[in-house]
Amino acid sequence: MNFVLLPGFGLGAFPLQRLMDGLQTKGHGVSLVDLPQDPSWQSYLSTLTPPQTPSVLVGWSLGGQVATLLAQEWGCALVTLASNPRFCATDDWPCAMPVDDFRAFEQRYIAQPDKSRLRFAALVCQGEAQAKDYVGQLRSSFEHSVDVSASAQQLRLLAELDTRSVLASLSVPQYHFFAGQDALVPADVAQHLALPSASSQVFQWADASHFLPYTHAPQLVEALCELFPGE
User: Fold this and answer.
1) Distance CA 96, CA 32 (A)
2) Nearest to 13 by CA among 143, 100, 120
3) For the chain, percent of residues with pLDDT exceeding 90
4) Cα–Cα distance for residue pair 203/174, rounded to 1 Å
5) Please, which residues have CB within 8 angstroms of residue 169's CB and are 6 or more apart in sequence?
6) Is 124:11 a contact under the CB 8 Å cutoff?
7) Which residue in 121, 165, 183, 199 has the most C-beta neighbors within 10 A?
8) CB-neighbour burial class of residue 12 (10 A; exposed 0-12, middle 13-18, buried 19+)
9) What is the pLDDT of residues 6-47, one digit of tens each?
10) Cα–Cα distance list, 192 to 72, 137, 142 (Å)
């Protein structure tokens, strides 16, 4: 099987590296797709080549929302990891970050991007017994200063994207993994998703944080290989 992975906001590809390596070790094809960096969805699509073989889109956090839209566009199976289809809360979707909290986070991130990225890394790892070590590993993986323009666009996506209706209407298989100790995506999102039952399934690891694809990579590899054994 061919797996196409999409990262989350702000931390690059490092959080997905263990998952990528594990899937490749099992003999699967793996590629990584960057998140949008400009306001035009069509412009973003034009930079991508749709898979030519049966593929599974696997997106972490914001990457899960983007992967959902690509699954609709390309007809690929979908897997989301610690991803809220509506990251900012609304009256009909309270299981999300309060809008005022998000705006404050966005302002801090744009004003002090490198410092805020490290704070964000701590939020991602919050709930892990080895959180301090994981934050250190993330910090070591930062190769460049934050691209403020790209970050601003991706924060806008986090604020505005709402993929609930897309998930409810997808005709492809879809699987969603959540973390019980997630400091960014409330665990009860899993109970509020309206999914087509014939082709969807929800999983949750009670002991996992938002850093799920890194900390639980072996379990995810086994789960994905079972769900998508390939030929």
Assistant:
1) 27
2) 143
3) 91
4) 11
5) 72, 196
6) yes
7) 121
8) middle
9) 999 999 999 999 999 999 999 999 999 999 988 789 999 999
10) 21, 33, 35
Q: Nearest Cα to 95, choosing from 186, 174, 170? A: 186
How far is Cα 34 from Cα 146, in angstroms, rounded to an integer? Answer: 15
pLDDT band at 231 (very low <50, low <70, confident <90, very high): low
Cβ–Cβ < 8 Å for 13, 65: no
Classify residue 163 as exposed, middle or buried by CB count within 10 Å of its CB (0-12, 13-18, 19+). buried
Cα gap 93→215, rounded to integer Å: 28
Q: Indicate whether 156 pLDDT > 60.
A: yes
Distance CA 231, CA 222 (A): 16
- How far is CA 23 from each of CA 30, 75, 199, rounded to the nearest angstrom? 7, 21, 23
Tokens coding 157:
């996506």
Sheet containing strand 29-32, edge to edge, reads: 29-32, 2-6, 55-60, 77-81, 174-179, 200-205
Q: Tell me, what's the pLDDT at 182?
A: 97
Give the model confidence (pLDDT) of 112-145 as tens digits: 999 999 999 999 999 999 999 999 999 999 989 9
At residue 114, the pLDDT reads 95
How far apart are alpha carbons 23 and 86 in whole angstroms? 28
Alpha carbon distance 119, 121 (integer Å):
5
Report which residue type is found at 77: A
pTM tops 0.85, yes or no: yes
Q: How far apart are CA 16 and CA 212, in angstroms?
A: 9
